[in-house]
């Protein structure tokens, strides 16, 4: 027996990925992506709060599913044979890292300088076991920060100054853009920084470009970032909605070519058939 496994989308990153399973303002990013992939792909959360790219690179070999065959002995019924199957194929991998790397030197201990950050990300997207799956790699820029609020919280916690700045985070986002533009066609840029900033600026009518980066201490204006980044760093449900639209657009583009035809339409990309086609068992028993 050779079962047909659900292949995978892996979400890989720091706390912004770890907490994307949380219900925030009535919205759950992970659920939104999984709903898009239902009956086609499993969406797997591999988020590690506090991690930077150096730490994530160290554990990458334990995150990527193997492409080799596995034997599972089935002991529930001794008369059943062992089951052989191919481990799930990695169809898409989303990578969101950089918010911790961009901490200022001498603060939290999470800092990874720009050259090393670039080298780490390039090593992650070119990791041979990852590339063996031939997945689409969604390479995400870190989101903007609300530096004003982060600095307030940092000072209240005893830091002499803020641990992050808007300008510094923006430079890390640009590194991601540069890597994606130089990579092959399997690497797709998801510009979360730009999308959230555009959303925030559109909802902050009194902001002007000459003020500086919205949310920076220099600009003196938080604007709509106050709603998108409640603690200055982590995203709200509204921000995750923006993120989910970007991600869903890039996963399963081929499904858009499946034409719906009638009430009993069955997408050919489903792993298992509709109940009325499941003829291998009598549903009344």
From TrEMBL:
A GO MF term: hydrolase activity
Transcription keyword on record: no
Occurrences of domain SGNH hydrolase-type esterase (ranges): 11-241
Segments crossing the lipid bilayer: none
Alphabetically ordered keywords of this record: Hydrolase
Pfam families: Lipase_GDSL_2
Protein name: SGNH hydrolase
Organism: Mollisia scopiformis
